[in-house]
Amino acid sequence: AQKVTQTQTSISVMEKTTVTMDCVYETQDSSYFLFWYKQTASGEIVFLIRQDSYKKENATVGHYSLNFQKPKSSIGLIITATQIEDSAVYFCAMRYTNAYKVIFGKGTHLHVLP
Amino acid sequence: NAGVIQTPRHKVTGKGQEATLWCEPISGHSAVFWYRQTIVQGLEFLTYFRNQAPIDDSGMPKERFSAQMPNQSHSTLKIQSTQPQDSAVYLCASSLEQQISNERLFFGHGTKLSVL
Q: Beta strand pairing status for B111-115 and B10-13?
């Protein structure tokens, strides 16, 4: 069965520092896709970044990057030079190739302090 | 592109009443998802349509919940005989579906359902 676990409920960091949010997943499939989404205080959920399981290179988009450790079934989100507006809830998600549902973790609430 | 549109934004029902939630996906998107979000359970998958056909409803409660997609421009989630435990934010998302499942989801702002 698919399962995505985010153990960090809440993280506080100072502005302009780097933060890593953890995510581990359970899968019986060899091919899958991993996603990170951000939910702002208004409730809006937006896509941030994706990692394809068959790619060895870690994905990077702007100041977001991933630490993909396939043997550990781990996909960490790294945010560099954090800004106040990065304060939000971050969700990790997984989908098998040719599967239907996208499974989400329970989220990590990031607080960026001035 | 207005994004995924969900109406109403807030709905208050009395226990036992029916609630119908509406979703208009992004034009051209062939996949529509419904999720329920609560503090305790997080984002729970409910159901998935592809090209208007119901494909996976494994997350739908067996009783009282139903979803339809009568045309490519809207989907509805109906909850009959609402109960207080149905109170949640119901989110609709759409995506371009190609041969592989790597497309991002675009979420609506959700409908906050409160059952009194």
A: parallel
Secondary structure (3-state) at B72: coil
What's A15's DSSP letter?
T
Q: Is B67 helix (H, G, I), strand (E, B) or coil?
A: strand
Please, are residues B103 and B111 in contact by the beta-carbon 8 Å criterion? no
Nearest Cα to Cα of residue A91 among A32, A39, A26:
A39
Chain A, nearest residue to B92 by Cα: A45
Q: Are B104 and A104 in contact (CB < 8 Å)?
A: no
Percent composition of chain B: helix, strand, coil (DSSP 3-state, to 5): 5, 55, 45
pLDDT single digits (tens) B52-71 = 999 999 999 989 999 999 99
Torsion of CA A8, A12, A17, A19, to 10 degrees: 10
Encode pLDDT of A9-67 as tens digits. Answer: 999 999 999 999 999 999 888 889 999 999 999 999 999 999 999 999 999 999 999 99
Q: Which long-range contacts (CB under 8 A, 24 or more apart) does B60-63 make?
A: none
Comparing CB atoms, the residue among B35, B48, B105 nearest residue A47 is B105
CA distances from A107 to A10, A69, A93, B32 (A): 9, 19, 10, 22
Q: How many CB atoms lie within 10 A of CB B74?
A: 16
Task: Give the N- to C-terminal CA distance of chain B in Å, as an integer.
Answer: 35
